Amino acid sequence: MACGTADDITLRKIGGENSLDFSIYYEKNGQVLSTFHDIPLFANEEKTLYNMIVEIPRWTNAKNEINKETPLNPIKQDIADGKPRFVPNVFPNKGYMWNYGAFPQTWEDPGYISPFTGFKGDNDPIDVIEIGQNVATVGEIKQVKILGVIGLLDQNETDWKVVVLDAKDPMSDKINGNLKIDIEDVEKHKPSYLKNTDTFFRVYKLPSGKKENTIAFEGEAQNKEFATDIVLETHEHWKLLVNGTTPKQNIQTINLSVKGSPYLVGPDNSDVLNVPAHNPLPPALIDSSYDEWFYVSASNI
After folding, report:
1. Is the confidence at residue 47, as pLDDT, over 90?
2. What's the maximum distance between 2 C-alpha atoms anywhere in the chain?
3. Among 35, 57, 117, 286, whose Cα sits 20 to 30 Å from the Cα of 64?
4. Does the pLDDT value for residue 300 go beyond 70?
C-alpha cells in the first residue's frame, strides 16, 4: 500500500490493556499486516496527509509502542523489571498531554548521525504528538497534518517529535484559510502548549533517575517544511531497512505488501498464521503507585 486511509483497516486485539499479554495487530479483509511496514505513511495521493498510529492516548501513561522485535510489529506495552511499564506522571499532567504515537514506514537509523543534532537515531519509527482536542484510543489510526517538529535529544540519541494535528480537528478548520498551516499557529491557538511540551520532554525521565534531556535549536520547535523533510528522511531510512540494504539487526521486517523487499511474505507464512485470533479482554487493574505525581523542574527555565 503506497498510500491510503485506514478506513478498511481493522484491529485484532489480544488480551487486556495494562498487561504483558496485551497486543494489537492490524488487518485488512481478515489479513494480518505489519504495523511498522504495511500501514502506509501517506494518507492521500498528494502526500499532504499522514497516517499516525496512536500508541498512548492523551492523559494516559501505559507505555504502549510498536514492537520492533515481534513479527508483524504489533502494539504492545513496554516492559520494565518484568512488569508493564508506565510513564511517570510529571505534575500537573497525568501521563502525556497529547495523543502520542508514531508514523509507520519511518525509522530513525541508529547508524545515522543527524547533522542537526550531532547524535544518532533512536532505532524507532519517528514519534508523533497530536495536539487536537479529542482523546484518541490505543491503536487508532489518525489522518494528520504536519505542523512542525521538536528536536529532542533523549539520553544522547536523536528522538524527533513531530507535532501534528488531526485533519478533522476544529482547529484545522479555523486555520484552513491559511494554506501555510505551520508551527506558529500552535502558539496562536493554543498558547503555552509548546512551551509546556518542551519542559515535559526535558524532565520526564528525571523521576526514573536519568539525566535531564535537552532540546535542539535552543528549544525552538522547527517549522512544517523542516519537519516534513525530517519525516521524509526517516522514510528513506526505512526503505533502506526494509529492502535489505541496512542490516536489520533484531528488527522484525517481514511484511505482506512492500514490493521488492526480501522480507516480503505471503499469507501462508508461519508467523502470519500464528497470530492469535481476536480475543480482547477487560483492562487489567493498574496499581495505584502509577498514579503518583512527580514534582520536578527543568534547569534554566
Report:
1. yes
2. 57
3. 117
4. no
| pLDDT tens, position by position, 161-183 | 999 999 999 888 776 555 567 89
Q: Which residues pair with 264 in a beta bridge?
A: 255
Residue 91 has φ and ψ, to the nearest 5°, of -50, 135
Q: What is the pLDDT of residues 77-100, one digit of tens each?
A: 999 999 999 999 999 999 999 999
Q: Which residues of 127-149 are buried (b: 16+ CB within 10 A; e: fewer)?
A: bbbbbbeeebebbbbbbbbbbbb
Cell of 100: 502520542
Distance CA 259, CA 105 (A): 13
pLDDT at 3 over 70: no
Q: Are strands 293-294 and 89-90 parallel, antiparallel or unpaired?
A: parallel
Q: Where are the beta strands (DSSP E) in 82-140?
A: 83-84, 89-90, 99-102, 127-130
Contacts of 288 (CB under 8 A, 6+ apart): none
